[in-house]
């Protein structure tokens, strides 16, 4: 039961990481898109910091991004 | 980072080390969660090679420990991991002009830290990028395998006074600082913090996605004003 959950989560999280690598393999990114993508790393990390610290019940591990 | 002279493999592996340090307490948090869920150590640890994503693993076992169904635990863990789709989009340009095997293998080690490293000084040359990415990714992978093994064995023995529950915020603060290596990226990060706070009420981390999208759009409007 637990092993099934681990394997399903593993497949799902791998598919989320691999999907756009293949889906966008031939897409010609316009310059404005390339600039937008440069902001993904700092904005996602900043958003995670705030969402972790604003958990109402203070249950940090549970929501640990 | 990876200059022409230094090997991309060495700079990738060395770049990974400082970002792994904040992940060490998180490996102990993982061990505590596995123990609290009543899951055998080896079975808990097996999620490290199968899933390879600390937050996803912790969420899955937290919910299983609370008695959630497999479907509920898996879907909650995947919601937590949904941000990896953004990483997949952001890295798609650099995965063009790469061999097919790398497009399959690379995403397996695409975690927060490897994504941040790959974005610091985007490498244009495909061979250099591939070696750097794989070296950083599998350095993290090896360390995570080792430290989650230590975590499931020793984690339950860690006294609560050590405050390991702050492991996750500390980890993402260090990643945010590493990722903000240019003035406009610092601006983007500050905007995203404000927006996430404003949209914190939205359910299922939708607020996080909305905050990221709005911040990126504002940055584009501000930085491209007056340009053709």
Task: Please specify the SSE layout and strand pairing.
The complex is a heterodimer of chains A (65) and B (228).
Chain A: H1 2-23, H2 31-38, H3 40-53
Chain B: H1 8-20, H2 23-36, H3 41-51, H4 54-65, H5 70-80, H6 83-95, H7 100-105, H8 112-120, H9 126-154, H10 167-179, H11 183-198, H12 206-224
Structural class of chain B: mainly alpha
Amino-to-carboxy terminus distance of chain B: 32 Å
Annotation field: number of helices of chain A: 3
Shape of chain B: globular
Number of helices of chain B: 12
Spans of chain B of at least 5 consecutive residues whose pLDDT stays below 50 are none
Distance separating the two termini of chain A: 24 Å
Can you offer a commentary on this structure?
The complex is a heterodimer of chains A (65) and B (228). Chain A contains three helices and no strands. By secondary structure, chain A is an all-alpha fold. Chain A has one domain. Chain A is flat. With 228 residues, chain B is an all-alpha fold. Chain B is 73% helix and 0% strand. Chain B has twelve helices and no strands. Chain B has helices at 8-20, 23-36, 41-51, 54-65, 70-80, 83-95, 100-105, 112-120, 126-154, 167-179, 183-198, 206-224. In chain B, helix 3 (41-51) packs antiparallel against helix 4, helix 3 packs antiparallel against helix 9 and helix 4 runs antiparallel to helix 5. Chain B is globular, with a radius of gyration of 19 Å. Chain B starts with 7 loop residues before the first helix and ends with a helix. The model of chain B has no long low-confidence stretch (mean pLDDT 91). Chains A and B meet through helix 1, helix 2 and helix 3 of A and helix 2, helix 3, helix 4, helix 5 and helix 6 of B.
């Amino acid at each position: 039961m637990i092993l099934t959950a681990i394997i399903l989560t593993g497949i799902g999280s791998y598919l989320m990481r691999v999907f756009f690598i293949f889906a966008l393999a031939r897409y010609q990114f316009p310059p404005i898109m390339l600039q937008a993508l440069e902001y993904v790393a700092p904005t996602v990390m900043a958003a995670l910091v705030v969402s972790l610290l604003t958990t109402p019940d203070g249950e940090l591990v549970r929501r640990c991004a | 980072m990876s200059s022409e002279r230094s090997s991309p493999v060495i700079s990738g592996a060395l770049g990974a080390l400082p970002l792994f340090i904040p992940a060490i307490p998180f490996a102990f948090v993982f061990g505590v969660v596995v123990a609290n869920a009543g899951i055998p150590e080896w079975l808990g640890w097996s999620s490290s090679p199968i899933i390879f994503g600390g937050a996803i693993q912790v969420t899955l076992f937290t919910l299983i420990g609370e008695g959630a169904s497999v479907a509920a635990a898996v879907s909650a863990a995947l919601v937590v991991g949904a941000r990896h789709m953004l990483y997949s989009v952001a890295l798609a340009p650099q995965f063009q002009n790469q061999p097919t095997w790398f497009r399959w293998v690379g995403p397996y080690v695409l975690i927060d830290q490897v994504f941040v490293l790959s974005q610091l000084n985007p490498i244009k040359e495909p061979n250099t990028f591939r070696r750097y990415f794989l070296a950083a990714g599998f350095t993290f992978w090896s360390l995570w395998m080792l430290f989650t093994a230590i975590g499931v064995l020793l984690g339950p023995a860690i006294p609560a006074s050590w405050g390991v529950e702050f492991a996750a915020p500390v980890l993402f603060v260090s990643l945010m600082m590493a990722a903000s290596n240019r003035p406009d990226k610092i601006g983007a990060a500050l905007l995203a913090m404000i927006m996430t706070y404003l949209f914190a009420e939205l359910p299922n981390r939708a607020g996080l996605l909305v905050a990221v999208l709005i911040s990126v759009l504002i940055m584009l409007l501000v930085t491209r004003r007056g340009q053709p």
